[in-house]
Amino acid sequence: MRLVRSTLLIVAGLALGACGGGKMMAESSMPFGGNDSVQYAGQLWKALQAAGMLGDNAVMSKPYKGQHPHGAVLDTIEGPVKVGGHRGVAIVKRNYGGDNVSTASVATNPGAFLKAVTVMYKRERGYDSDNNDWFWAKYLADGTLDKNPAGMQLAGRVAKGKPAGCIACHKAAPGSDMVFNHDRHR
């Protein structure tokens, strides 16, 4: 009984220490989304639908050949989106895959091949100054957030400070704006 109690006290102490003396770790320092990021991702999904960037009648670009981790075929669009009181640019990449996927099959029937939607959304100044204030999210085709292998929902500052993930990959984009397809400035 004493061993169990001592073990519980040690585990509780470690948990408190990891969370800053009993306070929850500030979400701005979390490498994956906490509750605020997950809720914001839900608002963003709805705003993207309202803006015509998602759904059956969504605007679509010409499908092109993709690569890991996004999908075999991709289509990318961008435009202004308002989430709450903030208006920012959203870059939406729809990720397609599956049997018989091709640029032609996606152009004809995108819904049959849609696997995920990855989004970069320019938040307000100061959201994440280290990473140009981008909010990152990866959704499954039905709008639920995807998770990494450890079960963390992919929303917010995805993999901030990690050697792999959204932020690590996009830091290599030309122009220091974290966008690969063109140079985006505020």
Please outline what is shown here.
The chain is of the alpha+beta class.
Walk me through what this model shows.
The chain is an alpha+beta fold and 186 residues long. The chain has two domains: 1-26, no CATH class; 31-176, no CATH class. Helix content is 24%, strand content 23%. The protein has a six-stranded antiparallel beta sheet with strand order 1-2-3-4-5-6. The chain is globular and about 45 Å long. The model is unreliable at 1-24 (pLDDT under 50).
Strand percent estimate: 15-25%
Question: Main sheet?
Answer: 6 strands, antiparallel
Query: How do the helices and strands follow one another from N- to C-terminus?
Result: HHEEEHEEEH
Estimate percent helicity: 10-25%
Mean pLDDT: 80
Task: Give the strand line-up of the largest sheet.
Answer: 1-2-3-4-5-6
Radius of gyration, in Å, reads 19 Å
The number of domains is 2
Q: How many angstroms does the end-to-end distance come to? A: 60 Å
| Poorly predicted runs of 5 or more residues | 1-24
Structural class: alpha+beta
- If helices are DSSP runs of H or I spanning 4 or more residues, what is the number of helices? 4
Q: Would you count the extended β strands for me?
A: 6
General shape:
globular
